[in-house]
Amino acid sequence: MKFPSKGLYAITQTEAKSADAIIAEVRAALQGGAVVIQYRDKTTREAQPLASALLQECHRHHAPLIINDDIELAAKIGADGVHLGRDDGSVAAARQLLGPKAIIGVSCYDDLAKAIDMQGQGVDYVAFGRFFPSNSKPLASPAHITTLQQARQSINIPIVAIGGILPDNGAQLLAAGADLLAVIGGVFEHDPEQSARAYQRLFI
Ligand SMILES: Cc1ncc(COP(=O)(O)OP(=O)(O)O)c(N)n1
Ligand SMILES: Cc1nc(C(=O)O)sc1CCOP(=O)(O)O
């Protein structure tokens, strides 16, 4: 499945929630208009059954499911792609295991040179952040809106912004050059369907 060129990229907040609750929340976010879902699981739960159920749910809505950090889990369940951070393995290893059609995204934090390098390595999107203080990841380092503006000039794959993004602060990131807004709390700590709709309005 292709990575969308714009829209809400919703990331599951899996801690302290049952698998059924997570599936229901993801379904609601998709109904509200999320165009990509990421499974980001920092718990010790057996991830495969839940990730497989989320993949089915995403495909019912024609949205890709991206697995955070875990290339092998992505391969095992046939996910649409993987998101790689600093310590999550190389793009080459992910491409080799997942194949040419897999979506590979990378965290570039506030580092435009890294994003340009990653684009050269054939990734499908680059992510910058965090742009606003984040309850989901309080220790994430700040990124600058000027980095997005500069990225717009030199990056021709989708640019994702992340970190503390709410319906009322997201428009400035889109104006600066972001194509997609990646969100945990703003979607999953509220009514996910209504919240997703509020983000989707930013893209009209
Ligand atoms: C879309 C998107 N952007 C950034 C991140 C952060 O990834 P990473 O730096 O690997 O940190 P963790 O998510 O693993 O804490 C992301 N997951 N998704
Ligand atoms: C997972 C993650 N990565 C970040 C980064 O800056 O790389 S910020 C972040 C948390 C995003 O969640 P929320 O929308 O609730 O702030």
Automatic annotation (TrEMBL):
Its EC number is 2.5.1.3. Pathway: Cofactor biosynthesis; thiamine diphosphate biosynthesis; thiamine phosphate from 4-amino-2-methyl-5-diphosphomethylpyrimidine and 4-methyl-5-(2-phosphoethyl)-thiazole: step 1/1. GO terms for molecular function: magnesium ion binding; thiamine-phosphate diphosphorylase activity. 4-amino-2-methyl-5-(diphosphooxymethyl)pyrimidine binds at Q38, Y39, R40, D41, K42, N68, S107, K137. CDD domains: TMP_TenI (cd00564). It comes from the Bacteria. Belongs to the thiamine-phosphate synthase family. Condenses 4-methyl-5-(beta-hydroxyethyl)thiazole monophosphate (THZ-P) and 2-methyl-4-amino-5-hydroxymethyl pyrimidine pyrophosphate (HMP-PP) to form thiamine monophosphate (TMP). Mg(2+) binds at D69, D88. 2-[(2R,5Z)-2-carboxy-4-methylthiazol-5(2H)-ylidene]ethyl phosphate binds at S134, N135, S136, G164. Its cofactor is Mg(2+). The gene is thiE. GO terms for biological process: thiamine biosynthetic process; thiamine diphosphate biosynthetic process. GO terms for cellular component: cytoplasm. Keywords: Magnesium, Metal-binding, Thiamine biosynthesis, Transferase. Binds 1 Mg(2+) ion per subunit. This is Thiamine-phosphate synthase. Residues 8-186 form the Thiamine phosphate synthase/TenI domain. It catalyses: 2-(2-carboxy-4-methylthiazol-5-yl)ethyl phosphate + 4-amino-2-methyl-5-(diphosphooxymethyl)pyrimidine + 2 H(+) = thiamine phosphate + CO2 + diphosphate; 2-[(2R,5Z)-2-carboxy-4-methylthiazol-5(2H)-ylidene]ethyl phosphate + 4-amino-2-methyl-5-(diphosphooxymethyl)pyrimidine + 2 H(+) = thiamine phosphate + CO2 + diphosphate; 4-methyl-5-(2-phosphooxyethyl)-thiazole + 4-amino-2-methyl-5-(diphosphooxymethyl)pyrimidine + H(+) = thiamine phosphate + diphosphate. It is an enzyme of class 2 (transferase). InterPro entries: Aldolase_TIM, ThiamineP_synth_sf, ThiamineP_synth_TenI, TMP_synthase.
